[in-house]
Amino acid sequence: MPSLTAKIQDVFNEPACEKNRSKDAKARKSGCSKPLIPGAAAGGCAFDGAKIVLQPITDVAHLIHAPLACEGNSWDNRGSASSGPMLWRTSFTTDLTELDVVMGQGERKLFKAIREINEAYAPPAIFVYSTCVTALIGDDIEAVCKRASEKFGLPVVPVNVPGFVGSKNLGNKLAGETLLDHVIGTVEPDDVGSYDINILGEFNLSGEFWLVKPLLDRLGIRVRACIPGDARYRDVACAHRAKASMLVCSTALINLAREMKERWDIPFFEGSFYGITDTSEALRQIAKLLVAKGANPEILKRTEALIEEEEAIAWKKLAAYRPRLQGKRVLLNTGGVKSWSVVHALMEIGIEIVGTSVKKSTVEDKERIKQALKDENHMFESMAPRELYTMLADHKADIMLSGGRTQFIALKAKTPWLDINQERHHPYAGYDGMVELVRQIDLAIHNPIWSEVREPAPWEYQPGAEEELPSTQGGPETVHAKKKSAPQLLASASAEESL
């Protein structure tokens, strides 16, 4: 197997990435992400990125060879969902101590942990993750995994991704390389069909993929493997026999899609299941690739019939929200595939995008945003919290869609906020998901709490101030109302309690 350094350089040299191809040899070696600086690790390390990609393989035991904090800090940080096995929800770690490090007991402890997991759970496979500590002390997890695989008769997969090698995005790609090296192609299915596809870079957050899979089932299209959302080890191992692939998030797994095309001639395209138009286009592209690989062309007609039916239902449901949301302004502070797919989805119902982050977006993502917005001024690479707050406090947006880390900026600015990242509790993919997204935006914007929190606090009222009250005759009338100060309010409350 190539060394970790060689693997990282191989990942940095990504032929399928247009931005990467435009770099010179020196710039290409440094990768796409900026090196982490002290205090800037909130975005996750390489270990965290690999865990994000691999842990949603739900029937696998994921063993972290590290001190307890490495697993404790990263466990359950994604909202992926499973329709069956729940082993992935169990946290396994070797829990290395200082004594283990000093005495060189790491490899022995790892082998013992693998044996205990196999005896207690009998999983189809065990994934073993190295981290900063075990990489620094030189534990050879590949040798231990090989020995354990021979001893116990099951795949034990080494995931060599110590956090210090780079960012979370690099970890995503190294996880894809791990699947290519140790999993995909290791099992030959006995039920290969002409309508088998892979979905890559779909994490099934809040069960999103379950809103899309029924559409594919109605077309007779089988998802051979969804990597990683709600995946099973055997399905991933058989993924090399699919006829086509759809890449949902190129930022994370474009190397996996490209290498599967090179090794097994599986064509792929990048698409989105966010929004009505993008969902329909994704279904069309899947059908076209399958026909190009030998499927019956009649699937094209069935796809168009399904799209026409589902779009009519979705637009009918959305009609009730259009008058309430027409012209509302949204600030989108996210990245990757959501930076363009959600933009397009929201504009379909008349919502105005006043800004969208492109910090984690590829060149192709940015081009799609430009085509949708027609204005590059609405794109920002990154925006400081102070700038976000100023924009929201000045009422330049009616709602902000972002991840949990920036929700408090919106709340401080007394602006509605909706979670669009992995911590969310509502699925937004597909036709039904688009309706749910619009419904949640409508609920957030029109929540009466916002008119309450924007009112002056009781201690901010000025005695003798004039206020306008709505007249029952249809026009405003000015009344002189002496607003009570905080002491007066307290006195009134005490008087009422005595009564």
Task: Describe it.
The chain is an alpha/beta fold and 499 residues long. The chain has four domains: 33-182, 3-Layer(aba) Sandwich (Rossmann fold), CATH 3.40.50.1980; 196-318, Nitrogenase MoFe cofactor biosynthesis protein NifE, C-terminal (Rossmann fold), CATH 3.40.50.12380; 322-452, Rossmann fold, CATH 3.40.50; 458-498, no CATH class. 46% of the residues lie in helices and 13% in strands. The chain is built from 23 helices and 15 strands. It has helices at residues 4-12, 18-21, 25-29, 46-54, 68-74, 98-103, 106-121, 132-136, 141-152, 168-182, 209-218, 233-237, 250-264, 276-292, 298-318, 322-325, 338-347, 363-373, 385-393, 407-412, 430-445, 449-453, 486-498; strands spanning 61-65, 92-93, 126-130, 156-159, 196-202, 222-228, 244-247, 268-270, 329-333, 352-357, 379-380, 399-402, 417-419, 466-470, 476-480. It has a five-stranded parallel sheet with strand order 11-10-9-12-13. A four-stranded parallel sheet has the order 2-1-3-4, with helices on both faces. Strand 1 (61-65), helix 5 (68-74) and strand 2 form a beta-alpha-beta unit. Helix 7 packs parallel to helix 9, helix 10 runs parallel beside helix 13 and helix 14 packs antiparallel against helix 15 (298-318). The N and C termini lie far apart (83 Å). Residues 45-443 form the Nitrogenase/oxidoreductase component domain. Belongs to the NifD/NifK/NifE/NifN family. This is Nitrogenase iron-molybdenum cofactor biosynthesis protein NifE. Pathway: Cofactor biosynthesis; Fe-Mo cofactor biosynthesis. Residues 461-499 are annotated as: Disordered.
